[in-house]
Amino acid sequence: MIKIYKAFLVILSFVITNSLVAQDLPVATIQKNIESFKENPRGPYKKIEWFCEDGTMREARDPCPDDIGGGVQHASYSEDLITLGTKYHLFFADILANTDKVAFWDVTNDNSRIKQYQLARYLASVDNGWVQRKSQFYRGAIQSEDEEAWGVEFYEWLLRSDTRFRQNYYLLRQTLRDIPHDGDSNIAQRMRSESKILAETYPKFMDARIKIHGKPSVSDIQMVQEFRAKHKGDLSDEVKKQFDQLEKTLAEFYTPINFKELQSQVNAISVKNDLTERISTFLEKAAQDTSAQTLVPEIADVLCYIRQDVLTLRRSSDRLAMLDLSNELEDILLLKTQEWQPETLKELLYKIQTLSYAATGTGLIELNEWAAVEPYLQADSYHNDKSVEQLNDFLATARGVVEWSASQVKAKYQEVVDTYATFEPKAYGFIDDRVRSSVALDLGESVSTLGAFIAKHSGLENKVMDIDGQSSVRGLNPGYAYGELVVIEGSPEGIEVDTEKIYVFEKPPSDLKPVAGIMTVSEGNLVSHVQLLARNLGIPNAALSQENLQDLSKYSGKKVFYAVSNKGSVIIKGEDDITDEERELFSKKQRSTSQVTVPVEKIALDKKDIINMRDLDASASGKLVGPKAANLGQLKKMFPEQVVEGLVIPFGIFKDHMDQKMTNYEGSYWEFLNNAFAKAEQMKSNGASSKEIETFQLQELKRLREAINMMTLKPSFVNSLRADFQKVFKSPMGKTPVFLRSDTNMEDLEEFTGAGLNLTLFNILDEDKILKGIKDVWASPYTERSFKWRQQYLSNPENVFPSILIIPSVDVEYSGVMITKGINQGTDKDLTIAFSRGAGGAVDGQAAETRLVTATDTRLLSPARQADYIRLPATGGVKKNIATFDEEILNEKNIKDIRAIAQSIRTRLPEMTGSDYDGAYDVELGFENDKLWLFQIRPFVENKTAKSSEYLEAISPKIDNDFLITLDAPIN
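RE: above sequence
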């Protein structure tokens, strides 16, 4: 007997805190461990041992006695593997038998451990066993019968909970493909992995591999056989073995459907109810007609019936059997949908509708999301013809379903994949593999076909190099740029961007610095800070598919011209193909932005007292305080019950502190700042390059920022803050958590938004942290990102004055942004809203629940796909929570309240402020127990120069939206 082991397995998961999981990983050490595991005959394991029911371990020759319940025999973990688990929550080679079920489900870490198990299985399939390269042959390390028995027990425990079932439907179905429980295997993944490895070993097979990955069909068997025969003289014995295995797997994958076997699985379910009868009826009919056009819609129906009614089965074993059946039916659907080749427009629309419904049945789309889009995907209701406008609406909806499906996969697995990719780049292929093994693959192909058809008949056509699937590219806001194309595959964090380059991201970083142009696979939402800044500055911005990104990667590093028209069409062309007109746009230094001078002559720097927000209104903006505080004070007057109390530290207090002597400088902070800009101007006069000047400025601003962070706050100011805190918030500092929001004179202007450029500190409780936070906020306008964005658009970026808005935290259940107009869809009378769960929703690029709200209706533009969110505990700081997508964020009462507040803002705000501004507003708000809270309002700024550009208007296609197209029109 050696030691207690089960308790240790539980500790592996539960002693790991979120902060520990998130800490920087020792990448070099982990990579060294991986290489060591690969070369070790025992891999990541130590030795074979007995694991007894009472939690003890015994040597291999000392079995567990029957009187303590017996046990199982398998390998124990090496010390290095144990360290990876305990210190970094990394699990490369889990042996399931004897693993604690709760620890393996790992709910406190967003199911990280079970996802890592799936990812490790994938890596093993594409990298010759991965960490078990040699230990695959370590006899006795893993007992398959014990693994399967554990898998059955695990799912019988897991599937007891209705809530767990509803909230994790997609994840549950996916894990069934990887966790042994019924002699099963993931044949589709094996087929893709084997073709990938074969193409890497024998590069001439690459085209065939692309066919198997992108458009699998039963003809692949003949294709592989013919390829092998053609190249047989060049094939080594090892490659021949790989061909043998691939042909065997293809034959297994394309085995004719055995409906009797499927019926026997239904018969094995312990109860008979409407669900089992419905499936039996389907199987009986399906056996008579196996044509793809008949079978695919019927399977889609059954998949959705299973999802909706599986909880009517009370036994976990029955639920497990039904989910396994669901996966098998999905596999059949994936085979058959490739055989379904529509010939007319109506058939194509029906196929798209069917596959969208199937996406719901497989968990890629939530049930509430399908209810929201179903009315817009009714191909059966179409008669003889449809207008271009109606078809474009169908296309936009269907394209959304494809994107939501892919984002479901990313939401579930991206964090784990990103972590592994830091030390194992092959991990990036996992998400693509999951998407390709789903209905999203053929749905995406069908939607691209529809897009190409509509483009052909309407004149809306993209010209993006020579890539395939161009109908998947769509413009988000107009503009044009010329520069080097940079394609970023994987995580963008840590990427240093250049203002003169054009970037293609899977998802843009939330702290993106100025760039010439952007394209994104995951646009996040229409009203994130990055999207608003791009719209404001006329930076061309478009969305594209993952396949588009991969196709563009071959042009990364090349100079290109990039334009997004006012109608959303997109052009990317190489340097040699640019027209004289397009060259002229840049030879004249004409850009889709214009410089704005922020007036500073009216700033009242003599006001050195903290201000009660109730005493402010919009007229104080740019004089005493920034627009956040002034406008929120105005809203407090208009909506006293929807706006919190607040304190404001005005410009004058900041300037008073900046007039103090600066550490390690002979003058004041303010003199240092002004001298830095004076020197920059002198450098410019002396002929220094813009790069040299910028480098100098950023170095000086960094020095200033560090000095402000170390500044001593005046005792009189601190004492006043304590007194005012008590008076306004009815508690002393240190007892009420607050937000500290930077509020400069150079943001939220009618011509420039500045959204998210400066610092906001969340839920600060401790007095010392509040005082330190004040200095951090004062320093934030001098960060590289903030300065560069201001410099891009403002003629006097050095004249920045920060005030600070201090408001008590509201622990909202969900929060977001409202724009009082339709963006990209809808009219100026509509609303565009984006909400995420928790605090700070939608502003940092989260995949938010985005809606178009009209006077009488609401339309879901995209669902929430943010995997986590934060709440604001009364003890200060933030608490990370894990999101599920089975319920919508906003309810009908919330929508009603949003409409009412928007109407009031539109009518009352200009009247009360005496403003002639007639544009839209950008409003931040949240809900706590269904009560609406207002946190910020600013003008919604769009780049008028970009919108009115003669060139952009010229490349915008002239579309006749009323043009009718017959539904009998041939697709090809």
